[in-house]
Amino acid sequence: MNEQAIDNGRVLLVTPMVFSYHVTICEALRRLGHEPTWWNDRGPGTTAVKVALRLWPSMARRWMEADYLRRIDELPAGSIRHILVIKGEGLSSRVLRHLRARFPDASMGLYLWDSLDNAPGIQEVAPLYDSASTFDPVDAGDNGWHYRPLFARTVALAAETGEERQYDWCFVGTIHSDRYRVITRLRRLEGGASRSFVFAYFPSRLVLAARRLVDWSLWLAPAGELSTVPMPAAEVARVVARSRAVLDVEHPRQRGLTMRTIETLLAGRKLLTTNQHLLSCDLYHPSRAHMIDRTSPAIDHAFLEAPALPIAPELRARYTCESWIGELLRHQIEARTRRQRPAATA
């Protein structure tokens, strides 16, 4: 199926509200000629809902289900051409069946940008979609799903600013699992923090306080390094420009490539990563990425000094958001067509 085979029309996009990725995807859909309607996959996503999900999860899920059913009925019948759900933690089987009944001609696809280990219950509802895709190559192989890596929000090469490379490596991101312990080990083995920059983000003070109870390494953090306020994008760009490499530490239960990985490589920056699955990715080249061990991380400084092999334009194009969304829509349309074919010939 080629690009022209995708029917333009209204796309219902259901995603988590994470770092404004939904905005990027909606903009890409518009550039491809679609009219997107975005819903948070956890309903309204208010603080009250988040608290309820933690304290009274069963009641909160019933409330979200009722809210979804109401909103589905408010959409004009036949108005949706394609439905794309990313992760979809808040969508029960009842909601998915109601979507199918309301829009029987629409293609409906699921995409996971997290591992199945971090998405409980998804395998039970996955057969209700026309197709399931994932960024995780292991989950794709184990379940017979479509493997599609994530995209980069920007793919332009980083302009040389003329600024001195102040840091050997930098990390700007959310802290989860053993991320900060890996950072602490790397600093210790590399002789301290003088050649590194770390901005460790936590979604709230409550989350930070809870993490400090179970992660001793956070007590050793330099002043001002732990934050509950995201770093502005312009400041992140300045830090990366002053760094020889960007550090990526994937979740222990995750194998897919993060957006940080893809954006770093496409921007022409070097990558330090614990994710061994990068070795089988088309973006990998030893001049661009260096593997480090979680338990005993060490940096090859010759890697930091050597030039990186440029990425070919056609490969860079594969990692645009437009290419990503186009491939997912084509895949779910093809799957929808295959599912309808037996009924059409009966």
Task: Give a structural overview.
It is a single chain. 38% of the residues lie in helices and 17% in strands. It is α/β, with parallel strands linked by helices. It folds into two domains: 175 residues, Response regulator (Rossmann fold); 152 residues, Rossmann fold, CATH 3.40.50. The strands form two sheets. A six-stranded parallel beta sheet has the order 2-1-3-4-5-6, with helices on both faces. It has a six-stranded parallel beta sheet with strand order 9-8-7-10-11-12, sandwiched between helices. The mean pLDDT is 87.
Q: Could you outline the blueprint of secondary structure elements for this entry?
A:
Blueprint: E1 10-15, H1 21-31, E2 35-40, H2 47-55, H3 57-74, E3 82-86, H4 93-102, E4 107-112, H5 122-125, E5 131-134, H6 137-143, E6 146-147, E7 167-174, H7 179-189, E8 196-201, H8 205-214, E9 226-227, H9 233-241, E10 243-248, H10 259-266, E11 270-273, E12 289-291, H11 301-305, H12 313-318, H13 321-345
Parallel strand pairs: 1-2, 1-3, 3-4, 4-5, 5-6, 7-8, 7-10, 8-9, 10-11, 11-12
Helix pairs in contact: 2-3, 3-4
